Amino acid sequence: MIKLQSIPEFQAHLPLFSIEDNFQVVYNQFLSSSLGKIYQAIPWDDLVKTFGLSKSKMGPDCLFSPQGKLGLMFLKNYACCSDERLVEQFNSNVHYQLFCQLLLEVGEHIKNFKIVSQIRCELATKLDLDMAQACLAQHWLPYMEELDQILTDATCYESSVRFPTDQKLLWEATDWCQNQLKLLCKHQKHSLPRTKYNKWRQRYWNYSRKRRRPKKERAAITRGLLALLKKLLAELEKHTQQSDDPMPAKYYKQYGIIEKVWEQQNYKFTTGKSPENRIVSLSKSYIRPIVRGKEAKAVEFGAKVNKVQVNGISFIEHLSFDAFNEGTHFKSTVRLAQTLTHTKVNLIGADAIYATNANRKFASSNNIRTDFVRKGRAGKHEHQRKKLAAMITKERATKLEGSFGKDKQHYYLNRIKARTKENEILWIFFGIHVSNALEIGRRMQDNLTQAA
User: Fold this and answer.
1) Which of 216, 225, 264, 347 could potentially form a cystine with 149 if both were Cys, beta carbons 3.0 to 4.6 Å apart?
2) Is there a single domain that holds both residue 177 and residue 105?
């Protein structure tokens, strides 16, 4: 049994451990860990070239090398924590520092946790999804089998936004306009125009506290906020034109978003029809409602991703914040798999939404076997076809759909907290491929064990 001692009993005799003197021991421990397996599975030099990164000579980014910047993004999804906590863990975890190729001196630590966000914004503008995935696939091919068999399905990676309602959206827009109007009037030394903002603020607060909100009351709140927002937008436009100093670009962008929100909500209120490309968040105006038809979540808000999986390794075939029918991406999924693996696809597993006449004809003409339900009379080998279809369906339900849950629960893709469209795409890319890298790293370790 291990004898336990409290710290005061042995801290006087605690030997000082030097990483420099025992570097090889620490490095071997790192390589044998899960993080080390991810590190060995990533083609760092090729990935750096794909992103077009170079060594920074000035500013806070110069702390990390190009490889270190990519490593920090992999760590973000691996550790599943905020930027501030990631920096705290980085300062105290030697394995994290080895992963990013940045060993801190004794007593040295990174204070600026915003460096993670700065690096994320830099990489988001340089990400080429197709090139980056081709680079990773080329490196992973020797550790992948059954390249002629693929699985495909779509899922939604939700953004971190509050559940939208028309009343919440209108109130947020009204509140923003009122605050901007106050600032403009103060700067121009004008009196604030008379509006019913205080009255509707109190009415909205009373409304928001209620558990039951009848249709009649919802309509009254919506009608009042629409009228108030229209007046505030007109006052803002008038005071902006009177201003001698030009407003920042961010102001005009937000003003345009709110103006579009008023048009959409007014159209919905007067006609009862939902407008196209409906904005559901002022801070993330690119988010669209995606109807998934699930029992727990009928509607989700985030990026919809059509994935293709080859031997347990997943790749992004199509990513969009607008709703799309994944059934139309059947042919492009096959082409992507063949491009990445350099192997002709002979078998594909997909659910019923992909089983259109066009996709069936494409699969038949290219001798691709599927698990689609047969149309028409049964063939000569119907029994064997049913057994094969059942095996493919089971494989898709366990491996591919299981990877959706694994990515969301273990690699920080359940609620994506990035604030821009480009950052969300980067977040999803690293979340999916850190899972792939761990799987490839385990296979590489198994191959070395068997060879020994």
Assistant:
1) 347
2) no
- Measured CA to CA, the distance from residue 227 to residue 210 in angstroms comes to 23
Separation between Cα atoms, residue 326 and residue 323, nearest integer Å: 9
12 lies in some domain = no
Question: Which residue in the block uniquely carries the two structure tokens 């919802």?
Answer: 218
The SS3 call for residue 151 is strand
Are 119 and 72 in contact, with CB atoms under 8 Å apart? yes
pLDDT (tens place) for every residue of the chain, 452 residues total? 555 555 555 555 545 556 666 788 889 999 999 999 999 999 999 999 999 998 866 655 578 999 999 999 999 999 999 999 999 999 999 999 999 999 888 788 899 899 999 999 999 999 999 999 999 999 999 999 999 999 999 999 999 998 889 999 999 999 999 999 999 999 888 899 999 999 999 999 999 999 999 999 999 999 999 999 999 999 999 999 888 788 899 999 999 999 999 999 999 999 999 999 999 999 999 999 998 767 677 889 999 999 999 999 999 999 999 999 999 999 999 999 999 999 999 999 999 899 999 999 999 999 999 989 888 776 677 778 788 888 888 888 888 988 999 999 999 999 999 999 999 999 999 999 999 999 999 999 999 888 86
Domain that includes residue 202, residue range = 166-271
Q: 135 and 91, same structural domain?
A: no
Q: 415 phi and psi, to 5 degrees?
A: -140, 100
Q: What is the DSSP string of 197-249?
A: HHHHHHHHHHHHT-S---HHHHHHHHHHHHHHHHHHHHHHHHHHHH-SSPPPH
Is 446 in the same domain as 309? yes
Query: What's the start-to-end Cα distance of the chain, in Å?
Result: 33
Do 393 and 305 lie in one domain? The reply is yes
The secondary structure of 5-60 as a DSSP string is --HHHHGGGPPPPPTTTTHHHHHHHHHHSHHHHHHHHS-HHHHHHHHT-----SSG
Which residue pairs, CB below 8 angstroms and at least 24 apart, start in 294-301? 300/156, 300/158, 301/158, 301/159, 301/161, 301/164
pTM: 0.91
- Are 270 and 181 in contact by the 8 Å Cβ rule? The answer is no
Distance CA 313, CA 144 (A): 8
- Say which CATH number the domain at 138 has: 3.30.420
The three-point CA angle 362-367-373 to 5° equals: 70
Is position 281 within any domain? no
Report which secondary-structure segment, H or E, holds 434: helix 421-451
